[in-house]
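Exercise 7. Predict the joint structure of the components listed below.
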Amino acid sequence: MSGDLQIVLPSKDLVIVANRLPVHRVRRTDGMKWEISPGGLVSALSPLLQQSSGQWVGWTGRSGAAPKPFLHDGIQNIPVSMSKSEVTDFYHGFSNTTLWPLYHDAIRQPIYRRRWWNPYREVNQRFAELAAEVAPKKATVWIQDYQLQLVPKMLRTIRPDVRIGFFLHIPFPPTELFAQLPWRRAILEGLLGADVVGFQTRTGAQNFQAVARRYTQARGTGQVLRVENRQVLASAFPISIDYQRFNDMAKTESVMRRMQDIRKRVGHDRKIILGVDRLDYTKGIDIRIRAFEELLASGRWSPQECVLVQVAVPSREVVDEYVEVRRRIDELVGKVNGQYGQLGMAAIDYLRRNLDAEELIAMYRCADVMLVTPLRDGMNLIAKEFVASRVENRGVLVLSEFTGAAKELRGAIQVNPHDIDGLMVSIEEALSMSPSLVTRRMRSMRETIRRHTVHDWARSFLGAVNQ
Ligand code: G6P
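Solution:
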């Protein structure tokens, strides 16, 4: 891969700017240590950064003064400070209570609070200044996600010599929703400071092109917009995963041991229906549980025959809408288990916590059916991880039409996640699909992901930035 990268990165200097650093602090017996965070972005970009003595500008996740820059695993980490009130206003407020719901089809009412806007600008300015300070001459700076949409323009103003890419990991909404945002023009001008603005899907890119033409000076008919004297490419670059890593880990002794353990606990004869999500209202966990409840109520499947294992990783726990969805799911799980569970045999096994990579892959491999049913999702990498882990070509994926992944994973049973009856029917269809069809569909999905990994994603994006 490194040979190809030298072609696409004429300047070998790469700076990543993301809200979070690629590492987090953990307590070990010998004191506090930085450890690499799990996730596709980190595993995709780490090799690039390691080979180019690259740098990563980001937040540690804690308020207060930032630690000094430090080297970890070949990557120079440049921590950005954030005060307590900025965590409230920039992160929980503007990023996660205004932008997050607005960009996810306004599934929850976005709150437009004027006092969050300045902190959003100020924190973006801080990221831009740090990036400007550390980027070598003519470096490539790659800015990530909705928390940092003003950084491209701010950075260009200070450092017109660098190439700038921006990638949005979440959906970009249609005009009628985006138009609500009181700061829409500033956000668009911020993004148009980049040379390339990347989206998960073509629809996202087209939505952006339409509002950019409507609310800014940007002109042009297709994916190349003219902004002042520059050209900005606004295009789709669907993200993927490190296929090889999941494929290889799935075959290890320790994953197989964990699989045996899971099977022993759940029961060898019960079908496992699995959900793995961040605990977020966009993921449709509650509707999924209701569809499973209806399936049990129909009498066609019983808890002796199948179990729903739902893993929900706690997230953004101080935001009201997250508190509310957590309460709702707790309540639903209690209700279904109260009604249908039996002694020593719950209908739903609900784990509200993080799993380590091995346990997660063992779960993926044990699942007969994987439910990925968000109401809206930029891509959804869980769906891709599940597929990459199914080395024996088994397992059925039930996938929401409203994810970026649905555009690629045609071998999944695609569902409208709002439709409880349709969801129930799809779960039943998945539970009783013939083994030969299961294998055929899984094989084709695995091939799709094998051919487009996160490394291909990074390579094609950086290739476009350095064109
Ligand atoms: C989504 C966003 C990321 C974000 C992640 C975790 O995937 O696109 O930018 O980092 O959620 O959320 P958190 O708020 O904990 O960073």
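Discussion. The chain has a mean pLDDT of 95.
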